[in-house]
Amino acid sequence: MVKKDQARKGTGAKPSPNKKRPAASASPAKPLGKKPGKTAASRKLAPDVAIRRYDKEIVDLLNLRAAATIQLLEQHPVPREAVFNPHADDELWAKLEELNTKGPLPHSAFRAVFREVLSAAKQKIKRQRVAYLGPLYSFTHFAALERFGSHADLVSVNTIAAVFEEVNRGHTEFGIVPIENSTDGRIVDTLDMFQRLPLKICGELQIAVHHNLLSRSPRSEINEIYSKPQALSQCRDWLARNMPQADLHEVTSTSTAAQLARDKPGAAAVASRQAAVQYDLEIVADNIEDNPNNVTRFAVIGDVETKPTGHDRTSILLQIPHAPGSLSDALNAFKMNKVNLTWIESFPLRGPEPGYLFFLDFEGHAHDLKIKKTLSALEKKAVSLRMLGSYPRSEPIDG
């Protein structure tokens, strides 16, 4: 968690309460015949003049901020580690929210500006190439922008497997894939690929996913609704109650759905606000997801190891003997070491061998003493144990 800066206390001695202050008339006399002029700070500027002045100051300050960021990154002994530092980024977002107390701009506006400043500065040190599950304006694209900014080389691919392949072959340094949703649960394709390829999780993002009904037709004339299966599933109840006359059609992505809604009269899409802007669609109904706390967690995959932050998550793949009580015996390691196990999923083993492979998430970092003890205890019970990574936990942000 980000610690608030402690207020600095003055070190000067306080004046004695009995000591008299100089009278106001004791101040030096002003020259006769001259009135004191207004300072620049006290003069009220016309809005157009103020805007020109502020624009110059903002441009100058942002360039100074970028230059200082580049200098800081260059001084790091391992620039690659400095360029990908999700914990430092998240600390900055928290600090900006703490500083932004006067308004009228929301925190998301400042976050967007600083994200692009950081993204541009980081590319001066090392180009970051990132594969994500596309196409443009999908929620995974939004997650990639949130973590890496638009100045990174973002590569859209058609499947989760393709994201893993791009990273595994060295075509990209990182990949972004959805891993679980608070409504639909696990993303099977993602967990399956961790079994197939030796890649690690080096970061995460949690995006609050809001779905919207988009169209160019009035609501009463909509007879077809398109979206990807997960989006339709997450809005199932709302669509049944409010759009019973419309046929639902599954497509490969919310962006594809938005294109169809743009081109077909009477068609609508379930997609994001960004898709509405990109494809020139009206928001017929907003926030139609059945669960108002609908959050998707995205994994950043690569081979970068992150240091402990005190607010971390560890993921592993575990195979245990296919025998009664073996899972209970293994999981007892978490209770004995007081480690919070947050997620467990099981998959049948590939091939003829009977048994299951378990995907586990738990709080803590592999370098923490109690996590070391837990992993050591698990290894004694396991047929195999593979570390997928320890990385900073993220807080949900609006999508």
Question: What distinguishing features does this structure have?
Answer:
D-Maltodextrin-Binding Protein, domain 2, Chorismate Mutase Domain, subunit A, 4 domains, 399 residues, 23% strand, alpha/beta, globular, disordered N terminus
Task: Walk me through what this model shows.
There is one protein chain. With 399 residues, this protein is α/β, with parallel strands linked by helices. The chain folds into four domains: 58-123, Chorismate Mutase Domain, subunit A; 129-204 and 294-303, Periplasmic binding protein-like II (D-Maltodextrin-Binding Protein, domain 2, 3-Layer(aba) Sandwich), CATH 3.40.190.10; 212-285, 3-Layer(aba) Sandwich (D-Maltodextrin-Binding Protein, domain 2); 305-392, ACT domain (Alpha-Beta Plaits, 2-Layer Sandwich). The chain is built from 13 helices and 16 strands. The protein has helices at residues 47-75, 79-83, 86-99, 107-125, 139-148, 160-168, 188-196, 229-234, 236-242, 254-263, 273-278, 326-336, 369-381, and strands spanning 129-133, 153-157, 174-181, 185-186, 200-208, 212-215, 224-227, 247-250, 267-271, 282-285, 295-302, 312-319, 341-348, 356-363, 384-392, 397-398. Strands 1, 2, 3, 4, 5, 11 and 16 form a seven-stranded mixed β-sheet that branches. Helix 3 packs antiparallel against helix 4. The longest helix has 29 residues, at 47-75. The protein is globular. Residues 1-42 have low confidence and may be disordered.
